[in-house]
Design a protein that fits this description.
The complex is a heterodimer of chains A (306) and B (330). Chain A is 34% helix and 20% strand. Chain A is of the alpha/beta class. In chain A, the strands form 3 sheets. Chain A has an 8-stranded mixed β-sheet, with helices on both faces. A 3-stranded antiparallel β-sheet of chain A has the order 2-1-4. Chain B is of the alpha/beta class and 330 residues long. The chains are: A alpha/beta (306), B alpha/beta (330). Chains A and B meet through helix 6, helix 7, helix 8 and helix 10 of A and helix 8, helix 9, helix 10 and helix 12 of B. The structure holds adenosine-5'-triphosphate (ATP), adenosine-5'-diphosphate (ADP), iron/sulfur cluster (SF4) and magnesium ion (2 copies).
């Protein structure tokens, strides 16, 4: 996958050669610093990039279908119904001027044409119960709900049509920690009950350690490694992944390691390994040759050390 | 009332039974009838920070952390109680004493976008407080002081960052600039309101480390507001846990974060995930923070508390001092 944004000052290749797979009923975590391209990648899968964003190359296969080759009409039938998305800010996915009930009605109408209102509202009520929002909130407007409730409603809408894949882009970053913990339980439950695959985008490693089956780490538009969750934390391979884990502060420890420097300017990314200016292990080869993804004991890693 | 006492001497900042209420009108009729609703944002708080001390104020959104921080800086009107700075009630400050207080106390905000002017060079923004407070006579001296400050917060090469605009900086760098702006006048007390909440893991670690280093280097007294307990651990020596306008637990960071007593603190600690370790079990807390317009009777945490007993629904609780034998601690 390669994706670019056309900025006033030239093309920006923000996703540069990414290969990723999500299995059925799997939760894949996607982590990386802000600006590393996580959201862009997600928008591309649903084909909802802004008009100045273009896929420069690559394919997106979903259940054997090549999404990039489908017509807009076919894509519309997939969006929401087979693949859906939850955004960081639930305000952006809820319409402030319509009641929660109308959000559900609209969703069902968009996909099934004429619908029986009573039936839809019954389903909506059940969905709200599943995500833990009082049913009577159906008749409220988004601003009458708390931030946590709004995000739960967005999740209910995302799972309403029983999609096979839900992409969650930092769904809990704007919420309080106790509400976040409640939502984590909800996600685990949904996977079990509704057999949904999820891509969970975040920069919070702690969350993923508990939720994800596998974790992909992204740096400056590239995936630097993919690993089963347990192994990633027990023994991280890539220097960036290691540094990322080490920079999470811990109760009980006064050690606070940092990654020096700043993520690169994507208009002019470093040659060779994109992490080399900040990498404590950088060798000569890192400055000239781009590392390729290798299989190391059941894990994938792109680094010259391996 | 419980006052922190340390060997470091008397309190630099002290809140005594501080109350801050906001009046919000819910409709025209209520306003006309003079029946505006009251948000009890801070509802009787005692807090004391010794000179050179660092208190982490933690709690969920809407618990009153920012309001309390602003109250300590004299930026909001008190409904009751008083704030003492260096032994003086700040409501009595006037003229030059007030101006000195404004210099000796500074604040850093969560969102450096809103605290920095997008149209002004970083150097000039950091310099502004020096001009306002008449520190450093001439222009060259001021520039020199700003460059030193930029260097101190890690914006190097300082000369280059001096002439950049906010949009040319990353989130972490903007927060460094905001910190430089607050510290350039040499304050004694800094309120840092969620300074890392909008930053990602790596920028967050850098800013935490910076605050920890600057605290020592400049002998700062710090109120660090956050909802990230591990972040509070990394820069603070004491922790105050706030819930719905009140402090529900207070103590040394080791006590509060490793051996929390209050069910609310226990819940917060148990959801603080450490990727290097598996998570511990804690009480399961349901629901969200109630509106401070409708504070529950009795213990204000009782509707969400899995241990709530009849007595919790009736009696207001006070902060009590509990000491456990050291051997009982993990
Ligand atoms: N200017 C205001 N007018 C009316 N109510 C206010 C005002 N500022 C804050 N409040 C209310 O006071 C309560 C405490 O707010 P405060 O901003 O102090 O909380 P906080 O703990 O800092 O929350 P957060 O973690 O979201 O920053 C909240 O219910 C808030 O809605
Ligand atoms: N709508 C957009 N137009 C132009 N550039 C964008 C847009 N959205 C993101 N970018 C740029 O693309 C890069 C990747 O951004 P994004 O996908 O949002 O990363 P992440 O989600 O990992 O934070 C960044 O350099 C960002 O500035
Ligand atoms: S390829 Fe080289 S520079 Fe890149 S992460 Fe590996 S060791 Fe570091
Ligand atoms: Mg994003
Ligand atoms: Mg606040």
């Amino acid at each position: 996958m390669r994706i670019g944004y056309d900025t006033g000052r030239g093309k920006l290749e923000v996703v540069a050669g990414v290969d990723l797979k999500v299995g059925r009923e799997e939760i894949l975590g996607l982590v990386g610093e802000s600006g590393s391209g996580k959201t862009t990648l997600a928008l591309a899968v649903l084909r909802i990039l802004p008009e100045w964003g273009t896929v420069l190359g690559g394919r997106i296969l979903f259940d054997g279908l090549d999404l990039l080759r489908m017509s807009e009409e076919e894509m519309r039938r997939i969006r929401g119904r087979r693949i859906s998305m939850v955004f960081q800010d639930p305000y952006s996915s809820l319409n402030p001027t319509s009641r929660i009930r109308d959000h559900f009605l609209e969703l069902y109408r968009a996909h099934y044409g004429h619908v029986d209102e009573k039936e839809v509202l019954e389903k909506a009520g059940t969905l709200l119960r599943i995500v833990g929002v009082p049913e009577e909130k159906l008749h409220d407007y988004p601003h009458q709900l708390s931030g946590g409730q709004r995000q739960r409603v967005a999740i209910a809408l995302a799972i309403a049509l029983k999609p096979e894949l839900v992409i969650l882009d930092e769904p809990t970053s704007s919420l309080d920690v106790l509400v976040e913990a409640q939502l984590m339980e909800l996600f685990k439950d949904l996977r079990k009950r509704e057999r949904i695959s999820m891509v969970f985008i975040t920069h919070n490693l702690g969350i993923l350690s508990e939720l994800a089956d596998r974790i992909a780490v992204m740096y400056a538009g590239k995936i630097v490694g993919v690993s089963p969750t347990e192994k990633l934390f027990a023994d991280p391979l890539h220097p960036y992944t290691r540094a990322l884990i080490d920079s999470v502060p811990t109760i009980g420890s006064d050690e606070l390691r940092t990654i020096s420097g700043e993520p690169p300017d994507l208009r002019n990314p470093p040659k060779g390994c994109r992490f080399h200016p900040r990498c404590p292990f950088a060798m000569d080869v890192c400055r000239v040759a781009e590392p390729v993804m290798k299989d190391v004991g059941g894990r994938e890693v792109a680094c010259h050390l391996y | 009332m419980r006052v922190i006492s340390t060997d470091e001497g008397r309190a630099l900042v002290e809140a005594r039974e501080v109350k801050v209420h906001y009046k919000v009108s819910t409709g025209l009729l209520e306003t006309l009838l003079g029946r505006a609703k009251v948000v009890r944002a801070v509802d009787g708080v005692n807090l004391s920070i010794p000179r050179g001390g660092s208190v982490g104020l933690v709690g969920e959104s809407g618990s009153g952390k920012t309001t309390l921080g602003r109250a300590l800086l004299g930026l909001v009107e008190l409904e009751g109680g008083s704030v003492l700075f260096d032994g003086t009630d700040i409501s009595s400050l006037k003229g030059s004493a007030l101006k000195a207080f404004r210099r000796r106390t500074q604040m850093v905000f969560q969102d450096p976008y809103t605290s920095l002017d997008p149209r002004m060079k970083i150097g000039h923004q950091v310099e502004e407080p020096l001009r306002v407070h008449g520190i450093c006579g001439n222009k060259e001296e001021r520039r020199q002081r700003v460059l030193e400050m930029l260097e101190k917060v890690g914006l190097v090469p300082a000369a280059e960052f001096y002439s950049r605009y906010p949009h040319q900086l990353s989130g972490g760098q903007r927060q460094r600039a905001a910190i430089a702006r607050a510290l350039v006048v040499g304050p004694e007390f800094l309120v840092a309101d969620e300074p890392v909440s909008n930053l990602d893991v790596s920028a967050r670690a850098q800013i935490l480390r910076l605050l920890r280093d600057l605290r020592k280097e400049m002998n700062l007294t710090l109120l660090f507001i956050t909802h990230d307990l591990a972040a509070a651990w990394s820069v603070c020596d004491r922790i105050d846990v706030m819930y719905l306008g009140r402090i529900v637990e207070e103590g040394a960071r080791e006590e509060v974060l490793r051996d929390p007593l209050h069910p609310y603190t226990q819940a917060l600690v148990s959801v603080t995930r450490d990727p290097k370790r598996r998570k511990g079990e804690g009480p399961k807390i349901s629901g969200e923070v109630p509106s401070p317009m409708n504070v529950p009777q009795g213990c204000r945490f009782h509707p969400r508390c899995p241990f709530a007993m009849d007595i919790c629904r009736i009696f207001v609780i006070r902060l009590v001092s509990v000491s456990l034998p050291i051997d009982d601690r993990a």
